[in-house]
User: Fold these one by one.
Assistant:
Number 1:
Amino acid sequence: MRIILLGPPGAGKGTQAKALAHRLNLPHISTGDLLRQNVSSGTELGKQAKDFMNKGTLVPDDLVTRILIQRIEQPDIKAGFILDGYPRNINQAKALDDMLSGRNMGIDVVVYLDTSEPVIIQRLSGRLVCSLCGANFHIKNMPPKKDMICDNCGGRLYQRSDDNEETIKKRLEVYLEETSGLIQYYEARQKLYRISADEEAEIVLNNIIHLVEKYNDSLKV
Ligand code: AMP
């Protein structure tokens, strides 16, 4: 199974992608995580990406696509993957189609996480991320058991530098201008499935699993 999670920032793509990857035993590929790893380890690519990320704008397509190709070439993606944060525009969607078809692969399902703006702002402004394992928490909705410590691995939690009000607004603007057009792109290819993502994370996850199971059943008919 090759699944894309699509939706505005704050729709819960990261949380859902991690949980789904765990349930389906598939790797989770997040271009945001890959970029942040490059920024924190100070690679040339990270240096080029950093300012775009801090402003909330998109990193140039060729940089992100390069990172993704490196990841797609790893052997663990043979059984499939959950892709989160890519594509962000039509150009990237086409690049993804090319990179997969060149390897005799294709996308099976695109899950669009439909979320309202007040929920997005509330989620992002309280989000906490583990510095070791990347797990997501929330100051109010999903507080860690110990203050600023990850329940899963004991790592320190931090607030992402782009989760401030000004950058959140910019990221939403960028999403509307550049990413939302992907809904039509995948709808036209009959790959898009909509899931309401304003609900609690566990309900949303069960709805996604149900959808994936139905898709798998339809392949058997
Ligand atoms: P995310 O973790 O998906 O919210 O991404 C954080 C930031 O990384 C975004 O605001 C962009 O600056 C950058 N980014 C992540 N994925 C992409 C992508 N596919 N194309 C361009 N920029 C990206």
Note: The chain has nine helices and eight strands.
Number 2:
Amino acid sequence: MSSLPERLLPTEIEGRLTTRWLGRTLYCHEEVSSTNDIARELARAGAAEGTVVIAESQTRGRGRLGRSWESPKHRNLYLSAVLRPAMAGTTLPRLSLVAGVAVCDAICEWYPASIKWPNDILIEGRKVAGLLAEIEPPAAVILGIGVNLNSALDEFPPELRDKAGSLFVATGVRVDRPVFVTRLLAHLEARYDQHRRDGFAPIADAWGERSLMIGKTISVEEPGGEVRGEVLGIDTDGALRLRLPSGTVHRVIAGDVTVVGGYQLNESTDSGRKC
Ligand code: BT5
């Protein structure tokens, strides 16, 4: 650890950036409520697409549906980007999957990882990254990305120790965080540009290749009750397509899914190497 930079500072990141537009305006903070809050304020004030906010810790890091995101100091990455896609509202679920592919590929430069719909990146069944895409009306999207880089298992709260992980937990080696940031931004810019240029189909293919869910039976809690079915893939709008036991195709727009029989079990049979 001693030979790695202790802080995520613009001086550590900017000289290594390979992107054209993403992260070219960069704000690094020591502590914030949530990087999504700061990016949202910047978007409201007219920040350009590609503006990025990073913090060393978050006091109110958040996940979806009011859940919280553990954000200890100086260990990991908490990053939000201001995006201004055409038709932000309808693009939001797809953007989340675009980002999921990019985050998965960045992590895969260090260790094999896979995607669990809609927004989890897993290593050997442990969640190492999560994504939170929020709309800032009328036309901006705030894309928040949390990646566990250097947290050790005993640094997670007890309730997360059997389900969260980090690159350090997987490899036993500390990640150079500024290098990770530049690789993440490079993958994200490339996938975002690909989506803008070629549409969603190549992203859906890439997502399928990185997901361990295709062909698996999953269960999802929906307002009308539990739905079980076999995962067929991702629809053109980002919804998850399931084949129900009756044979009909069902679309899951939002929710938490569970792989029946356990995710890790399935992952080990697939050897867990998806990149
Ligand atoms: C997510 O929500 O996975 C989205 C997480 C997004 C975090 C980033 S950090 C930068 C930006 N600023 C923010 O405030 N947020 C974004 P969800 O799918 O709802 O998962 C949340 C659940 O994951 C929690 O209820 C915990 O069970 C678990 N969890 C919390 N912190 C975790 C961590 N550090 N690592 C792994 N799992 C965690």
Note: Confidence is low (pLDDT under 50) at residues 264-272.
